[in-house]
Amino acid sequence: MEIENRAYHEGHMRSALAMAEFAITNDETPVGCVFVRNGEIVARGINDTNKSMNGTRHAEFQALSKLLSEDPNFPLHETDLYVTVEPCIMCASALRQFRIRAVYFGCNNDKFGGTGGVLGIHTDPSVDPTYPAYGGIFREEAIMLLRRFYVQENEKAPEPKMKKNRVLKFEIQPVAAKVVIPPL
Amino acid sequence: MATQPTAMIPTPDDIKKAFEAMELDEKEEISPRHGRLLRLKTLAEVKAFLLLDTVYVVKVPVKQSSKILKAIDAVLPPGSLANLQHVRRFAKPEQLPSRIRQLIDPGYVRPPGKVFLSPGCSVGNVSQPDTVPREKKPSQNSWLLAAPVDSIGEKALIETVKQHLSEETPEPEVHTIQVPHSAPSSMTVATKLSKKFWPTIYKSYSPYGPQPAEWRWAEKELDAVAGKHMAHAFEAAKAIHSLGYGYKIGACIVEPKTGALVSVAGDARWICNKDSQCVSQSDQETRSKGSPMAHAVMRVIGMVGRQRVVMDRPAAPPSPTSNPINYPFLDTALTEFEEGHHSSSPLVPGGYLCTGLDLYVTHEPCVMCSMAILHSRFNRVIFGHHMPKTGALCATKEIKLPGTRTKKGVTNKNGKPSKSHSDNTANHETNNSNTKENRGNVGTGTTGPDPQNSGALSVQPINVTGYQNSTNHIKNPKDGISSDSESSGQSSGIEVADADKGYGLFHRQELNWRMLAWLWIDEGKSDWVNELGEEVSA
Ligand SMILES: [Zn+2]
Ligand SMILES: [Zn+2]
């Protein structure tokens, strides 16, 4: 899908992907994000659930915490989020309560997605203003990072099933939904 | 030699003083709140209860009934009857609800002897007016619930039945009727459904959520301690609110095996820097300035993570002293009350997140907090005030407390929505029938006396997804059902509009982690009031 400002969004998503790459080297689920205001990255985040032993320390929260510790009044309503994986229900709600302007993500989060994957927390009737969410920017790259991570055995989680037979798959099924990138 | 006081034998005065000291100790302990637990309904349960299945019933001679049953079952596609395990296959005319009997068996006359109101519910000999004609013998025919209408054609059904009837028998009578799609939640409900639709069976199995036995087992443990733990959550709320850090919302995490408190935290959304400064009063009124990260649930979960890091990774670098309260996560103790419960952790090394732990919170958590609870893999959640606009645990926006009428759109004298709209104490009447079977389910959204408020919904194990795809379900047409035994006329098939449904996040099939959750109905002092505006996310 050819649109004028594709390069702009892809540029920021590339930064988010770089964060996800960094997460892998830190033994964290490779989800990376950047917050962007006026075309500039104002915060970066990676998942921190393993190190913090806290299942709520997702990349979005890590980046937001940096942003708020520097400026508690940071104008999030003028800020966009670029995240390699669709925000989960928790993050989708947090972003809405923080009044984020828009969310751009790579691949869908079929398990916990909060901006369409499982629930539509960004637009459901609620007391906080809605925000738009656009998926599919470098989707394949985001999925490949996740696959690379999941073939490594996650020894911490008490999963009954062994993940011995996991192999890295390279072919990615095309997604029915179109990549939608709005004009700026 | 001076007389030495005999310290060995305590005087009555000593004993009195000792008792007074003990009482003082007890006074410092927080007294448990009085109240009870109300099971939350799952979203699947709420959705399923609205449905009726359309089925064929056919009149068969009692003598041929089992042969015909076998023949029909043999021609049905596999699984056709999976959703109908809670309804009886055979019903004698006298067992039918009179409304149904008039519809499908108008020529029926009552036999002498016993009259059956519903299965297993004999009322003994009922003398009948002499004007009513009687048959000499009990009825020779039974009604067979043959199949859902979408599983077999009417012609094929008739052909199958005819094979087992003698040639002189007239064409079999076939009708379509509607039966409840979901199984009754209790014996009481089974009786009501039997009187209205078709003889219905109560079985202790629920495909829509936790099993009745699971609920009961947990409640056996929690009934005795929930009041104590909720009191801690409430004290945490009061402590944080008195410092102006946040709303009067509190939470605590409990290790259920020992009953020990793991962490306690209140809402600290107004804190806006690492020096515990708070946003201005006017900013607090705009509501948007509060930090969701400092919701009580997020904080109290953060405290568990910190304890685990200390325990499992002693080498981990200590948190920077420049930000001792860890703003904006604020997952350290902020009040004396929170501090008082941080000296020793009851957690054991090697645990994973909040697995096996219970969470108590004074208000229904928002979407973010509810999902944080799921991510943390809690065992059970008990919350105080229902938050119809912002809460995400309940599967319905309105909850019906047993023995009460629902308050819908309650307004105060000024015409504004009442602050205590979701306040339980204002809403509930004492219901003394708090037996295990009479526990209410939250969230049926009905008005008037609710016969369904007892026990969890139960049914045979079936493929739950079936009901979503099947086409022969219709929303219960309220006008089409004139109750023959109830004044409310709404005893079953309560319709909950999509807009009135909640997220029911505590127990959703697609979300990979499911818990038990209860609403705490406080029956204690009048201090239990929901002071939050209805648009506040807890
Ligand atoms: Zn998330
Ligand atoms: Zn919350």
How would you describe this structure to a colleague?
The complex is a heterodimer of chains A (184) and B (538). Chain A is α/β, with parallel strands linked by helices and 184 residues long. Chain A has five helices and five strands. In chain A, helix 4 links the parallel strand 3 and strand 4. In chain A, helix 1 runs parallel beside helix 5. The mean pLDDT of chain A is 88. Chain B contains twelve helices and 14 strands. In chain B, strand 4 and strand 5 form a beta hairpin. About 20% of the residues of chain B have low confidence. Classes of the chains: A alpha/beta (184), B alpha+beta (538). At the A-B interface, helix 3 and helix 4 of A face helix 9 and helix 11 of B. Bound molecules: zinc ion (2 copies). The site of one zinc ion has 6 residues of chain A, from helix 4. One zinc ion binds next to helix 4 of chain A. Chain B: InterPro entries: CMP_dCMP_dom (IPR002125), Cytidine_deaminase-like (IPR016193). Chain B: Belongs to the cytidine and deoxycytidylate deaminase family. ADAT3 subfamily. Chain B: It holds the Pfam family dCMP_cyt_deam_1. Chain B: One of its GO terms (molecular function) is tRNA-specific adenosine-34 deaminase activity.
Per-chain topology:
The complex is a heterodimer of chains A (184) and B (538).
Chain A: H1 6-25, E1 32-37, E2 40-46, H2 49-52, H3 59-70, E3 79-85, H4 89-97, E4 102-107, E5 133-135, H5 139-151
Parallel strand pairs in A: 3-4, 4-5
Antiparallel strand pairs in A: 1-2, 1-3
Chain B: H1 12-28, E1 35-40, H2 43-48, E2 51-61, H3 65-75, E3 90-91, H4 98-104, E4 114-116, E5 122-125, E6 141-148, H5 154-162, E7 174-180, H6 187-196, H7 212-242, E8 250-255, E9 260-266, H8 281-286, H9 296-312, H10 336-339, E10 358-363, H11 367-375, E11 380-385, E12 441-442, H12 466-469, E13 473-475, E14 516-522
Parallel strand pairs in B: 1-12, 10-11, 11-14
Antiparallel strand pairs in B: 1-14, 2-6, 2-7, 2-13, 3-6, 4-5, 8-9, 8-10
The complex binds zinc ion (2 copies).
